[in-house]
Amino acid sequence: MDTTASTPRNDPYASLRYQEFNYYLVIRFALVFALAMQFAIIEWKVYALSHDPFSLGLIGLSEVIPAVTLAPFAGHLVDKREKRGLLLKCVIAYLFISTGLFLLTWDKAVAGLSTQWILLSIYFLVFTGGIVRAFVSPSNFSLMSLLVPRALYANASTWSSSAWQIGGVLGPALGGLCIHWFGVHWSMLLVVAIFLAPLYSLIQIKPKPIYYKEKGETFLQGLTSGMRFVWQTKVVLGAMALDMFAVLFGGAVAMLPAYATDVLHVGSLGYGLLRSAPAVGALITMFIIAHKPLVNKPGIKLLAAVFVFGLTIILFGVSTSFWLSMAALLISGALDGISVIIRQTILQLKTPDDMRGRVASVSSMFVGSSNELGAFESGFMARQLGLVTSVVFGGCVTLAVVATTYVISPAMRKLDLKP
Q1: CB 24 within 8 A of CB 88
Q2: How many structural domains does the chain have?
Q3: What is the pLDDT of residues 298-319, one digit of tens each?
Q4: What is the pLDDT of residues 118-155, one digit of tens each?
Q5: The whole model's pTM is what?
Q6: Distance between CA 209 and CA 204 in Å, rounded?
Q7: What is d(CA 237, CA 239) in angstroms, rounded to the nearest whole number?
Q8: Please, what sign has the CA dihedral across residues 115, 118, 124, 126?
Q9: Who's near 375: CB < 8 A, 6+ residues apart?
Q10: Which domain holds residue 50?
Q11: 50 in a structural domain
Q12: Which of 59, 141, 322, 330 has its Cα between 20 and 30 A from that of 365?
């Protein structure tokens, strides 16, 4: 990578002029596309087997336990190892896991197994995927910073988030359509094939240098240094906490199979459309921000976006109209896109090169895993309070979190994203 290459100022496509970064975008897109499609299919299959919203929450819990538990170790290891090679191993592992899920959705392969054993086997493979994910997040985050100059981190974060959201749009939508057209089993076979795209793209990227510096730390100090850095860097801590609690309590997406089946009565096709709506909204935001970066008062804009996000979750919770529910999810995704871009830019600009893996692992623990914890929380609360009440409750808690953050975090209110 030529870090001295000149690029036009305010060029929204500046980072796309680096070939290896384009391969990285393919990896980012294909991984999220395949995993989002896989989760949409598995969620539908699990609910079809159990007819229990709590079983949907257990999917998230199965993944989040290993992802959170192993995150400090994974981040420490990523900082000490070559990032591209680690990510390559993770993609190969995902190929094996998706193949296992393909076999579990094949009626001939599971003939004679009880529903309980099929569910337990699915949860086990999701758990294994959580182990892989603990290494994917810090490897991904660290690799991106090695592909473009530091001055382009904000621009690269926007395009990286765009690739992530495009995958998030197409994955669930195609998953729902494929279930409708071909059934669950053959839809999972397509997921297996999609994982070949990031495998090929990683081969096109050269191995990268390792910036880890030995500081005479004990093993335990090395594991916890990322947490100490986040705790001491208040704006990073504030952004992570805000996003974590918003996603944790605003996790309406996890209940979509139940909403599509029991509230909106739209079947697998409607489920796929609902599942993709938040990502469509986020994608729109990504392209707008690529051309009009969030320069003025980004912290205030972040707080406002998450506050309105909470309102849209409440609206979705009480809606019995398919199109109103679609609109609420679309707007929630657009607002969440603002949060994603600002948080990723903060992390890229504030994190030292030799600590990127460990800081990314902390982000994975407290932000990335909040999706799965939110799914479990939503499933548990749906069983205790009822489906609609649990979603509305989550939206109200999100509003309270934003108000609290505004009061106690002056660093967030004064946030500046200039490199």
Answers
A1: no
A2: 1
A3: 778 888 888 888 899 889 888 8
A4: 889 999 999 999 899 888 888 888 888 888 887 787 78
A5: 0.67
A6: 16
A7: 6
A8: negative
A9: 56, 57, 59, 60, 61, 251, 254
A10: 14-207+221-413
A11: yes
A12: 330
